[in-house]
Design goal:
Helix content is 32%, strand content 31%. With 162 residues, the chain is α+β, with helices and mostly antiparallel strands.
Length: 162
């Protein structure tokens, strides 16, 4: 579908422990991609099955890509926070959240995004992350996934969301 151009991607992918980490051109972690592994019960462990699927570049149907969405800068402060600062931070984050919503309304069909969910980041309780559910046929492998995801990543970057 999309991602079939031959333009070299500025993004990098690394497979690690069943997921793919996506880095920008400065080697900053930009997102995580979680393929939809459709596992069947066997004597092998789930991790062994997933490893084989990735090594043999099997085809999967979509997955979830997790991006940082907003940094609240309000939680876990040992000292009190000024009310004016609190209002400004909330307004700024509301504006950025609305940008994400508008982008999704305009681009969900284009990028085969079938759903989204917001989470508190595990690494930083002061950050909210957004997971986009993508419904495309994807061949597992760093280069193969990068071909599919580069147009989405580029568009989010151009929209100042990454």
């Amino acid at each position: 579908m999309f991602g079939s151009n031959n333009k070299k991607s500025r993004w990098n992918l690394e497979y690690e422990d069943t997921i793919y980490k996506i880095y920008d051109w400065n080697r900053n972690l930009a997102a995580y991609f979680y393929p939809n592994y459709e596992l069947v019960e066997t004597d092998e462990s789930e991790d062994e099955i997933i490893e084989k699927l990735n090594q043999t570049h099997q085809n999967v149907r979509g997955g979830n890509i997790l991006f940082p969405m907003i940094k609240l800068n309000l939680l876990d402060k040992e000292e009190g926070i000024d009310l004016g600062y609190t209002i400004a931070a909330l307004e700024q984050n509301l504006g950025r959240t609305k940008l994400w919503k508008e982008w999704l309304l305009r681009n969900s069909i284009k990028f085969a995004i079938t759903g989204n969910t917001v989470f508190t980041s595990r690494e930083d309780r002061d950050m909210l992350s957004i997971a986009l559910e993508i419904d495309l046929n994807i061949i597992l492998g760093e280069k193969q996934i990068l071909v599919v995801l580069t147009p989405l990543l580029d568009d989010l970057h151009e929209a100042s969301l990454l």
